[in-house]
């Protein structure tokens, strides 16, 4: 079993990924590639060079130390050949403006647990704990499994935030160590799902059913993207799931926000949905009303 | 028409002092009070339900309420008097007298007496003959004397129990015994004259209220003023029997005794309030109206760093009644609206009526910067140990002004000096020389490059700190000794244990505990700088000693690489032991060495306080670039809160760091936490749990401001539209737009959760 994984962030005092006060561990790597992804740096499994372009002074110090010809400065414009990067970190060290970093660091279970356990008192008092997120935690099945087991041994409440796109075997194995499952529900039709996320959704829906039948509390998390799934039809599908699974612990609407786009530029991938801004409260509160009118009483804004 | 600069009160006061110069100091002080009151008591204003306003003279006597920049005790504000002379509006017949008065006080003020007694060791280190009002401080000094007798918490319970006649009776009794046994009976004689002055002041306002009642045609107001006159008359001739009488008596005594603190109002007013409500003597509405007047007076007359109204906590003899009054205080805050004062302070403990905390959190969530929260479960045992007093006395702890902890009517502990810890580190890098002025300010302990290990360097830094700490402790003691020689502070001595019984004045052996405190600033930056020096110069050897000092001398210009490395070093506030351990070691050293000064002096305690007022910004102006990456002249971190923007791991990590430094070796810290408003509106439950966990983990105190960053940014651009934006600086709140720009930016830089 793997004792290490690439972690791209550990966020303490997290209030939005499950009950109480939590520590969210973000694993790097995801089998899907959703158009609206707000953590694009979590898609690739490997480490990545990350460029804060607004901090760059075009001094060229990075180009001087790079042995792989990743950095180029032409007429004061800094371009990056991301594919050539071997993550040696020399440019990061050389940059006095802190405009470069390597995103993702290999961590052991012990290292992650040390950080998780630091806030135990807060979990105990608030009903919080650790949330495993990503990326897709199930992509790192053995690491995730071990980490969840360790949490249970230490009396830490666990949440897993998943796309559901995982092998059924893995999915069934992990459920006994999960106190609350945060399960994404993106798009109803399989074709559409494939179009926007890169994968069909039959297996995902099957896993949702497995999770629900297992009795683990499930919170459905529904990203809503203007122009893609902000339709009465989609809201109807959400309502249908609510009827089919009356004991869902919650249904959270996650309104689209565009913070992912800056990060896309920083890791050298293309912007998506460039014309969409962050959803305003006026808009998403209207969605909420629509859902409630359709009979989906437990919907909230996540 | 230009205002006449009338100095008749000041001239009378000076004459009274001079005439009684060779008299007993109690008689002299009492005669001076006679010249001062009711002369400086100003008119009852349109909406006042309580009488008692002051405009202090430029010469006078007050422990703490002297005009800003005029020091304390017998004071004379040279600068203001010279300004009046320059304006040329002093009446002809006063001119010679004013010049002469100015000369007379030069050697005679309480501050001058302390300075004249400076030891050889103090002379080159502490500045003299200079009080510069905040926010101006033009000298890059490390140890700064402070002149005031701050933190007066008189025994209001006794005042209200006995009333003025009862006090006269008690003091007369002691005087007669003392006279019969050949004791210092004149101290009591002075007290009796001072009480006569108080009675005269009651009658002065009584008459004024009657005159105003006769002059108004508004029937409601007429009745209010008649009522007020009646209350004042009662105060002069008998002990208070109603809430109104108790409130008026306590307010006027606070003003006349020169205090700026209100103390445990719920204890001393609670019984009166409950009795009057339960017996239909007063309505809730009427009580609230009186409280609004009280609030307004505190707001208009007291300074932003003072005015502590304290509610809740352990050690209240009448807890149920006190709780009911405490709720009235919170209701007063809610209905009065956001205000800079009073600094309402909620003391709480496990098992206290939860309504007090719930209502307090609602107020904080609504953008009030109060109440300040004090955890008795940590602080009562902490004070018992730090101040070395029985738990019963520790239960009566009172945070004064910015947060220095003293003991209600038993123990004094004015902060009489401040220490710029980061500046002390500055000179430790450079053999004791201040590189800004080029002068020697500290001991010659060598240059950074001379130290072979980090431990040696840290030891040299501690040696420098010890040098200043000892001087400041000696100065605190000296201030009390000289103050005691010059005046008995009659209004304080009458209501501080055990002055009357011992027949001694407060600062001359009368008070039960005579303590002191040292305000230290810049500890967090100093700790983070030590961490960076340890890591970069000694452990990893990435920056040489010479190169580090050069980088600091050049404010990092041309040393960008070093600047980046230093900024990236571990910082306090992220639950990272590499940085937090050094903070704890510095904290322990400072607190313990300061606390040990009681063995060198006659002070019952002398303790570090890590409070904040504007000094973190003001003192920072004269500190060069520091090894934590802070640039020259920039603000230092507040109290023991992480430097702005350095707590990056979230509020739980911050809290874990905050609870590491010990709380039983100092006399008060301030923990600022700012939260965005949405935290309260959408996550109140989790916020309460967070706070509860902080306190259970050993958090002593919290000052919480609810604000969003956007509010502050908008206020910088459009100040006129953000006049209602109040922020907590630390020991006090202020209108954000009124603050100096660098203080505004410092607040903006603190992280909001």
Give a structural overview.
The complex is a heterodimer of chains A (302) and B (753). Chain A has 11 helices and 13 strands. Chain A has 302 residues and is of the alpha/beta class. Chain A has 2 domains: 4-45 and 107-259 and 267-301, Aldolase class I (TIM Barrel, Alpha-Beta Barrel), CATH 3.20.20.70; 48-103, Alpha-Beta Plaits, CATH 3.30.70. Chain A is globular, with a radius of gyration of 20 Å. The two termini of chain A are 34 Å apart. The model of chain A has no long low-confidence stretch (mean pLDDT 94). In chain B, 51% of the residues lie in helices and 11% in strands. Chain B is built from 30 helices and 19 strands. With 753 residues, chain B is α/β, with parallel strands linked by helices. In chain B, strand 6 (308-312), helix 12 and strand 7 form a beta-alpha-beta unit. In chain B, the strands form 6 sheets. In chain B, strands 5, 11, 12, 13, 14 and 15 form a 6-stranded mixed beta sheet that branches. Chain B has a 5-stranded mixed beta sheet with strand order 6-7-8-17-16. A two-stranded antiparallel sheet of chain B has the order 1-2. Among the domains of chain B are: 8-134, no CATH class; 415-482 and 518-658, no CATH class. The mean pLDDT of chain B is 93. In chain B, helix 7 (185-215) runs antiparallel to helix 8 and helix 11 (284-301) packs across helix 12. The chains are: A alpha/beta (302), B alpha/beta (753). At the A-B interface, strand 1 and helix 4 of A face helix 23, helix 27 and helix 28 of B.
């Amino acid at each position: 079993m793997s004792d290490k994984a690439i972690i791209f962030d550990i966020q303490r005092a997290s209030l939005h990924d499950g009950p109480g006060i939590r520590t969210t561990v973000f694993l790097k790597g995801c089998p899907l590639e959703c158009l609206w992804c707000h953590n694009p740096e979590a898609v690739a499994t490997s480490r990545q060079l990350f460029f804060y372009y607004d901090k760059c002074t075009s001094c060229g110090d990075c180009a001087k130390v790079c042995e792989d010809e990743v950095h180029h400065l032409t007429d004061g414009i800094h371009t990056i050949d991301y594919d050539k990067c071997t993550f040696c970190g020399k440019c990061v060290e050389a940059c006095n403006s802190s405009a470069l970093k390597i995103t993702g660091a290999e961590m052991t279970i012990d290292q992650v647990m040390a950080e998780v356990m630091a806030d135990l008192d807060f979990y105990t008092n608030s009903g919080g704990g650790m949330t495993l997120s990503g990326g897709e935690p199930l992509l790192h099945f053995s690491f995730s499994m071990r980490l969840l087991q360790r949490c249970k041994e230490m009396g830490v409440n666990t949440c897993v935030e998943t796309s559901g796109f995982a092998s059924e075997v893995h999915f069934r194995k992990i459920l006994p160590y999960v106190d609350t499952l945060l399960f994404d529900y993106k798009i109803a039709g399989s074709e559409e799902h494939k179009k926007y996320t890169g994968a069909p959704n039959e297996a995902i829906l099957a896993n949702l059913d497995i999770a629900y039948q297992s009795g683990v509390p499930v919170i459905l998390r529904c990203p809503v993207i203007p122009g893609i799934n902000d339709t009465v039809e989609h809201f109807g599908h959400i309502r249908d799931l609510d009827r089919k699974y009356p004991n869902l612990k919650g249904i959270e609407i996650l309104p689209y926000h565009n913070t992912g786009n800056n990060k896309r530029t920083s890791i050298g991938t293309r912007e998506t949905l460039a014309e969409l801004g962050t959803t305003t409260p006026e808009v998403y509160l209207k969605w909420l009303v629509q859902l409630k009118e359709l009979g989906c009483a437990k919907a909230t804004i996540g | 028409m230009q205002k006449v600069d009338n100095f008749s009160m000041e001239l009378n006061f000076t004459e009274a002092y001079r005439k009684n110069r060779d008299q007993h100091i109690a008689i002299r002080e009492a005669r001076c009070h006679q010249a001062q009151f009711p002369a400086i008591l100003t008119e009852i204003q349109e909406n006042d339900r309580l009488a008692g306003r002051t405009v202090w003279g430029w010469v006078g006597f007050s422990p703490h309420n002297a005009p800003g920049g005029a020091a304390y005790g017998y004071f004379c504000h040279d600068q203001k008097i010279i300004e009046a002379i320059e304006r040329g509006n002093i009446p002809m017949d006063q001119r010679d007298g004013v010049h002469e008065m100015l000369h007379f006080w030069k050697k005679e003020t309480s501050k001058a007496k302390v300075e004249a007694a400076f030891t050889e060791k103090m002379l080159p280190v502490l500045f003299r003959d200079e009080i510069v009002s905040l926010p101006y401080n033009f000298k890059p000094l490390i140890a700064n004397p402070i002149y005031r007798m701050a933190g007066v918490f008189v025994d209001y319970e006794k005042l209200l129990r006995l009333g003025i006649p009862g006090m006269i009776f008690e003091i007369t009794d002691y005087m007669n015994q003392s006279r019969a046994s050949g004791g210092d009976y004149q101290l009591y004689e002075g007290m009796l004259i001072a009480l006569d002055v108080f009675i005269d002041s009651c009658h002065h306002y009584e008459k004024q209220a009657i005159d105003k009642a006769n002059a108004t045609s508004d029937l409601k107001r007429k009745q209010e003023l008649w009522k007020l006159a009646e209350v004042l008359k009662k105060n002069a001739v008998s002990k208070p029997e109603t809430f109104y009488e108790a409130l008026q008596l306590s307010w006027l005594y606070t003003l006349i005794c020169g205090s700026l603190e209100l103390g445990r109002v719920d204890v001393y007013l609670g019984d009166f309030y409950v009795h009057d409500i339960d017996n239909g003597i007063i309505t809730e509405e009427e009580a609230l109206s009186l409280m609004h007047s009280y609030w307004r007076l505190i707001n208009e007359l007291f300074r932003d760093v003072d005015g502590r109204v304290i509610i809740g906590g352990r050690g209240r003899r009448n807890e149920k009644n006190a709780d009911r009054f405490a709720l009235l205080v919170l209701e007063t805050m809610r209905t009065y609206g956001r205000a800079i004062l009073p600094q309402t302070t909620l003391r709480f403990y496990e098992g206290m009526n939860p309504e007090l905390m719930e209502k307090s959190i609602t107020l904080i969530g609504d953008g009030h910067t109060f109440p300040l929260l004090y955890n008795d479960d940590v602080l009562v045992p902490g004070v018992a140990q730090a101040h070395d007093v029985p738990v019963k006395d520790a239960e009566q702890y009172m945070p004064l002004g910015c947060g220095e902890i003293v003991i209600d009517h038993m123990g004094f502990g004015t902060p009489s000096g401040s220490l710029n810890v980061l500046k002390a580190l500055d000179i430790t890098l450079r053999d004791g020389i201040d590189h800004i002025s080029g002068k020697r300010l500290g001991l010659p302990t060598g240059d950074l490059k001379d130290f072979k290990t980090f431990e040696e360097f840290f030891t040299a830094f501690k040696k420098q700190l010890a040098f200043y700490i000892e001087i400041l402790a000696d100065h605190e003691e000296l201030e009390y000794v000289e103050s005691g020689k010059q005046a008995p502070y009659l209004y304080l001595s009458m209501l501080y244990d055990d002055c009357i019984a011992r027949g001694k004045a407060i600062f001359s052996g009368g008070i039960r505990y005579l303590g002191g405190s040292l305000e230290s600033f810049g500890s967090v930056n100093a700790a983070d700088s030590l961490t960076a020096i340890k890591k970069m110069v000694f452990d990893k050897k990435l920056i040489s000693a010479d190169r580090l000092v050069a980088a600091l001398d050049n404010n990092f210009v041309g040393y960008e690489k070093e600047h980046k490395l230093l900024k990236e070093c571990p910082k306090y506030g992220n639950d990272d032991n590499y940085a937090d351990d050094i903070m704890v070691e510095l904290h322990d050293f400072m607190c313990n060495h300061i606390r040990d000064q009681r063995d060198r002096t006659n002070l019952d305690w002398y303790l570090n306080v890590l409070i904040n007022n504007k000094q973190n910004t003001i003192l920072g102006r004269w500190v060069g670039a520091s090894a934590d990456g802070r640039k020259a002249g920039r603000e230092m971190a507040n109290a023991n809160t992480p430097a702005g923007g350095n707590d990056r791991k979230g509020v739980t990590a911050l809290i874990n760091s905050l609870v590491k430094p010990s709380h039983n070796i100092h006399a008060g810290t301030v923990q600022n936490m700012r939260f965005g408003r949405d935290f309260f509106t959408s996550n109140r439950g989790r916020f309460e749990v967070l706070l509860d966990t902080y306190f259970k983990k050993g958090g002593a105190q919290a000052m919480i401001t609810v604000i969003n960053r956007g509010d502050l940014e908008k206020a910088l651009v459009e100040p006129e539209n953000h006049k209602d934006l109040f922020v907590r600086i630390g020991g006090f709140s202020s209108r954000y737009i009124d603050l100096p720009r660098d203080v505004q930016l410092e607040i903006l830089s603190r992280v909001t959760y």
